[in-house]
Sequence to fold (249 residues):
Amino acid sequence: MRVALFLTCVNDTLFPGTGKAVVSLLRRLGCEVDFPAAQTCCGQMHVNTGYREEGVRLARHFTEVFAGYEAVVVPSGSCAAMIREQYLRLVRPGSRGAADIAEVVPRVHELTEFLLDVLKVEDVGAYFPHRVTYHPTCHSLRGLRLGDRPVRLLSRVRGLELVELPAAEECCGFGGTFSVKNPAVSAAMGADKARNVLATGAEVLCAADNSCLMHIGGTLGRQRAGVRVMHLAEILASTETLASTEAVG
Fold:
């Protein structure tokens, strides 16, 4: 399958390792992965802040860039939800680009959806010998309704001990521009989430959105908690320890 990676602007700017992990993972599973260099932002920040026309232009641009691919994989529940939920509402039926958007949007998949629903793979061959807890981000949980897909994938990772996060479904407080407009509330919500993470005794906090991990990770870092944050793709792509163990054996 020929797949396009939509990395998202947050990942491209701040977390390029997530993109590398997605490419490594998908290639391991037999996909041909392209990274269209013309890709930009999905437009979520613009639309959420009231800049609708700018969001429409970005939706049309996204469609032009990713037309022709069998699937578009997005390692972000937030951006995938923006494309799937908002694009068809932004562009009026019959207007320029509406038909193209309607054709491309159904081929856009959040990473765990693509692995389980399209590739039909639950064991991706990963090895990660650490104690991990998972935070279901708001867009992945309430928008895309990913359900237990991320947990099913994590449970099949060799060596990984998955521990349940208390009050997992509560928002971390980031919310994109929410954290800018309501910093005190955002910080309090982040502190609650960090406290629950520490209660698990986990070495690693995992999620499907780096924006939320950045927020929670910042709180954990200021507390010198010693808990790493990692995107789900980085854990699923991990095999190096397994390879070295097999070599020794």
